Request: fold
Amino acid sequence: MDDNGRSRAGGTQTAVRERPTLKTIAYMTGLGITTVSRALKDAPDIGADTKERVRLVANQLGYQPNRAGVRLRTGKTNVIALVLSIDDELMGFTSQMVRGISEVLGGTQYHLVVTPHSFEKDPMVPVRYILDTGSADGVIISRIEPDDPRVRLMTERNLPFVTHGRTDMGIVHPYHDYDNEAYAYQAVQKLVEKGRRRIAFLAPQSRFAFYVHSRIGFERGLADFGATEVPMGRVTSETPLDEIRAYAERMMRSVEPPDGIMSISGSATIALVAGLEAAGKKLGTDVDMVSKQSAEVLNWIRPEIYAVSEDIRQAGRELAKALMARIDGVGSELLQSVAKPVPSKMAPRDR
Reply:
C-alpha cells in the first residue's frame, strides 16, 4: 500500500466500513425495505419468522437506527431516559435497575439512556433538559418526594413518565413502589419476637416519600408489639458511611443502647454493624438487626442479620413496562403497582 492509501493492485481501500441501513438488511434478506422496517418495529402484520430473520441479520450487521432520521419522520426519539440519583445505595441498586429495564426494552425500538444526577444539586435540572430538548419519549425517575415538582412539571408538559415510588399530591400517574410500610411493621414484629424491646430505626431522609411510609409502619409496629424507639438523631441512610459507623459506636456505648436495630439500607447496615462491633457488642447476642437489601449480600457477610430483599431488577422491569404502556396511551390508573417485602433466601429462619 502506498502513502495515499492505494493497494498495490491500484484500487482504493475503504478505511471506514459503511454504516448498515434498512436497504442493507433488505438486500441481505431478500425482503422489501418497508417489510424490514415494519419487522424491526414488531408490526403485528409481519410474521414471527420474518421478524426473527430480520432481527438476526440486523444484529449480525450491527444495525442501529438513525435517531435523527426517526425523529424527523415520526416525532419520536425511541429513547427512554432513566434519571438516576448517584446518591442511591451502592449495593446493586443501579446495576439491577438498569438490568431490569434493559430486559424489557430489548427487542423493542427503545434505547435506554441513563442520566445521572445528585440530590445535593437541583433535581429538576435533568428533567428540564429532557423536556427542553425533546431528547426522550418517556422518563423514569426515582427518589420520589410526597409533593414532587418533577412529577408536576412532566404532567403539565404531557411527557410520559413513571416513578419508582408514590407521591401524595393528587396527581394520578404511573408508578411502581415497594411496600416500605409493611417492611417496617414486619421488621419491628421480628425484633420483638427475638425478645427485643428498645429499637432504633435507621430511616431515609424525611423529604422522601418512602420515609413517610416506613415511619408509619415502624410506629404502628411499636404500638402493636409493645416496643419503644431509641432515636438516631439526624443520622439517616443517606449519611456518609463513616459517620453512620461512628454514630453506631457511640450509640452502643451509651447507658441505654438499643437491643434491636431496623435499617432501610443494606450499605448503611454494614456501617452499623462495624460501629456496634467497635463498641464491643455482638450481633445476634447483644443486639439483633433487620435490614432491607437490594442484593443478596448481607447474609454472606453477617448471617445473623434478618435480611429482607427488595427486588430492584423486577422493579426495573415493571417501570419499563408501565412507561411503554403509558407512551402507547394506557391510562395512568392502570399502571400502578406495589411490591411486597420478601425475606432473603438466606435469612436466618431459612437456614
Observations:
- Residues 74-178+312-339 form a domain with the Rossmann fold fold (CATH 3.40.50.2300).
- The chain has three domains: 22-64, 74-178+312-339, 180-311+345-350.
- The CA atoms of residues 122 and 331 lie 30 Å apart.
